[in-house]
Design brief:
The chain is of the alpha/beta class. Helix content is 32%, strand content 26%. A hairpin with a 6-residue loop joins strand 7 and strand 8.
């Protein structure tokens, strides 16, 4: 049974936080499904991941290609994990169901703490997932380092 980790980004933007978390997931041996809500935003993230540091290459691909099943990190708007993912990363308010938390080794929900709408959406997701029986942890970087602030 997995857990949902909520990452409240206040000091680092998504494009800086995401590569660190994806690398940790890959180091754990998990394939990752990166779920977003906007195709253009996922295309932008795809480009950001390709332009990362030379020593931090993150193998990934955009869904809809011939090799989706082979991608260590698959960026998509879809619910299904076409790459056999054991880790789900949700950005920009993408939907996560309680049963997905149970099925995955880890679910990560990243949200911009400087965006009131994103904050409201994350709070709603926390309530829905924990009411559905999922374990959840809330991580904040308000002190400059990531620290767990709540657990359910």
């Amino acid at each position: 049974m997995g857990e949902a980790f909520f990452y409240h980004m206040t000091r680092s933007p998504l494009e800086a936080t995401l590569p660190v978390l994806l690398a940790k997931a890959l180091d754990a041996g998990w394939r990752v499904l990166l779920r977003g809500t906007d195709p253009a935003r996922l295309d932008w993230l795809d480009q950001k991941l390709w332009l990362g540091p030379d020593d931090g290459f993150l193998p990934h691909g955009r869904s809809g290609g011939l090799h989706d099943a082979d991608q260590p990190v698959l960026l998509t708007e879809a619910s299904a994990a076409a790459n056999g993912a054991k880790c789900l990363v949700a950005v920009d308010g993408a939907e996560v169901r309680p049963e997905e938390v149970v099925e995955m080794a880890r679910v990560m929900i990243l949200f911009d703490g400087n965006d009131p709408g994103a904050l409201d959406r994350a709070r709603s997701q926390w309530r829905a997932l924990t009411a559905g029986g999922a374990k959840a942890k809330y991580w904040s970087q308000e002190s400059g380092r990531w620290a767990m602030k709540a657990e359910s």
